[in-house]
Amino acid sequence: MPAKTGKEYIEGLKKANNNIYIHGERVDDVTEHPAFKNVIKSMANLYDLQYEKPEKMLYTSPTTGNKVGMTFLQPRTIEDLIARREATQEWAKTSGGMMGRSPDYLNAEVMAMGVNNSLFAEGDPRFAENARNYYEYARENDISLTHTLIHPQVNRAKMQHQQKDANVALHLVEERSDGIIVDGIRLLATQGGITDEILVFPSTVKKAGELDDPYSLAFAIPNNTPGLKFISRESFDYGKNEWDHPLGARFEEGDAIVSFENVFVPWERVFVCGNSSVCNRTFKETNAVVHMSHQVVAKNIVKTEFVLGVALSVMDAIGIDGFQHVQDKGTEIMLTLETMKSHLYRAEHNAKLDNSGTMTPDFAALDAARNWYPRIYPRLTEIIRILGASGLMGIPTEADFHHDEIGPIIHRGLQGKNLEGYERVQLFRLAWDLTLSAFGSRQTHYEYYFFGDPIRMGMTYFENYDKEPFRNYIQDFLKKSSSVKA
Ligand SMILES: Cc1cc2nc3c(=O)[nH]c(=O)nc-3n(C[C@H](O)[C@H](O)[C@H](O)COP(=O)(O)OP(=O)(O)OC[C@H]3O[C@@H](n4cnc5c(N)ncnc54)[C@H](O)[C@@H]3O)c2cc1C
Asked: In what residue span(s) does the HpaB/PvcC/4-BUDH N-terminal domain sit (predicted)?
């Protein structure tokens, strides 16, 4: 099957009738439900874009000859890497990078694990084959994916097997001749239920020991598998129009708790079964972390461009762009953008072929970027808040502007340097939705925790960094200093 259209994506969701719960109810038709229908439309637009820009968004499948999604491409050259990244950025531009789980993120994971599958054979030779087949299946059917990595937040001071109720977290119940039975809870599936399938994988950051083998699983199943439930948090799409909520009314992806009640997973969909050692090495040894980071850095460049555009527009709107500290804050965003672009350039231009013949970006550059962006993104949104000040609260709705009595008052009263009130408030509502609304606050939280807990990621980064050359440099420098004794 060639790449999906938006219509096919929506029809697929209708037919699947995934088990989704929100606001105390089971969702009948997710594509019509107010909490999901707008983001589903935005996802559909992404799929349609594949056909609006086929030269950028599609390529010829090596197995079927069909036109499939570029974001599934196994890159073999630097040009391939760049082409795949440009497709990511094309998608990201449609939302200003606000759709963190556009399909390209997990397409990169599935591709990397599919082509670098030998690690999975340590558990069972079939598992390596499964990973390869799953990549082809996902690519040829343009499967949309959600994923879940994290055990429930019960007691983080203990391992899973030490928890007071050790069966809360997703665990292996039984191995059968045809597959496995799993049961328990996983967190936190962004776009849970509004995609075709779910990937269950281990966390990169939270390593497990052998006693946690029953929790060490990796598999992929359709989201309508019996026993699978998505329990979504309350929606931040309040059903307002796009003028009032320019981001929340379009790109609210939702986050869901995933419940598995004695769910059957056929063997052909299992990649890791009760093996903490393989789980701990999965992202690194398959290079999935590298290809996913490449997608993330590319997406975050677009996101930073969007933030910069909003900041500059706010400055212009209220005539603050001449003030020194305001310019300096603009510079902070510009430096972030340029630094991210440099990381990306280095990652792509220092890329090398791995053992599977996949052109693999330079991870040192991407690792620095993925550790740094979660720390800097909260500052970027803080800058918008500082610049916008009361303007981020003086934001009547579009309906207020159309009111006979108050419309003319606010149109005049809320004018900007060169903007009428209506235009200025539209801009400031965007700045508010980017930073302060429930949607905007979640974006900041999302970026902070994107790849895991930044504190523990930072500790790992420090541990793995090759520090010796720098210590030696200083030792040599000190040795060469002249002594007063001499
Ligand atoms: C908006 C949003 C969307 C998300 N979407 C997804 C998704 O689609 N799929 C998915 O799988 N996950 C998703 N996540 C989960 C994300 O991967 C985790 O939030 C992240 O890995 C951190 O884990 P945690 O939330 O369990 O935090 P915890 O590990 O519970 O940490 C909580 C706090 O305790 C501290 N802490 C805990 N343990 C230790 C320790 N051992 N040493 C030192 N400090 C510690 C942490 O530093 C942190 O401050 C999402 C999270 C958010 C916020």
From this structure: 5-272
User: 296 and 444, same structural domain?
Assistant: yes
- Residue 80's nearest CA partner among 290, 358, 366 is 358
CA 20 from centre of chain: 21
Q: Clarify whether residues 210 and 336 are in a common domain.
A: no
Reported ipTM: 0.98
Same domain? For 217 and 293 the reply is no
**78-93 vs 288-318: helix crossing angle, rounded to 10:** 40
> Distance between alpha carbon 434 and the CA centroid of its chain, in Å?
17
Locate 120 and state its tokens.
């999975």
Q: Which of 453, 455, 456 to mutate to test the pocket of ligand 1 (most atoms within 8 A of CB)?
A: 453
Which residue's CA lies nearest to atom 32 of ligand 1?
453
The CATH number linked to 421 is 1.20.140.10
Q: Are the C-beta atoms of residues 381 and 444 closer than 8 Å to each other?
A: yes
Ligand 1 atom closest to residue 147's alpha carbon, by position in its atom list? 9
Chain-wide mean pLDDT for the chain?
96
pLDDT, position 204: 62
Residues 73 and 188 grouped into a single domain: yes
Q: What is the pLDDT of residue 481?
A: 85
Is 160 within 8 Å of 208 (Cβ atoms)? yes
Query: Do 303 and 269 fall into the same domain?
Result: no
User: Which protein residues touch ligand 1 with a CB less than 6 Å away?
Assistant: 147-150, 153, 156, 187-190, 205, 255, 442, 445-446, 449, 452-453, 455-456
Structural domain total, the chain: 2
Q: What's the pTM value of the predicted model, to 2 decimals?
A: 0.96
Q: What pLDDT is attached to residue 357?
A: 97
- Taking the CA of residue 452 as reference, the ligand 1 atom at the shortest distance is 21
Structural domain boundaries enclosing 68: 6-285
Q: Which of 237, 267, 285 marks a domain boundary?
A: 285
Residue nearest to atom 35 of ligand 1 (CA): 453
Q: Please give the annotated binding residues for FAD, written as ranges.
A: 147-149, 153-156, 190, 453-456
pLDDT in tens, 397-445: 999 999 999 999 999 999 999 999 999 999 999 999 999 999 999 999 9
Long-range pairs for 151-157 at CB < 8 Å and ≥24 separation? 151/185, 151/186, 151/187, 151/206, 151/215, 152/185, 152/186, 152/187, 153/187
* Token digits of residue 118: 């030998």
Q: Of 153, 168, 146, nearest to 206 (Cα)?
A: 153
pLDDT at position 486 is 58
Output the domain CATH number for residue 114.
Answer: 2.40.110.10
Q: Which of 106, 150, 201, 289 to mutate to test the pocket of ligand 1 (most atoms within 8 A of CB)?
A: 150
- The secondary structure of residue 320, as a DSSP letter, is -
Domain co-membership, 311 together with 360: yes
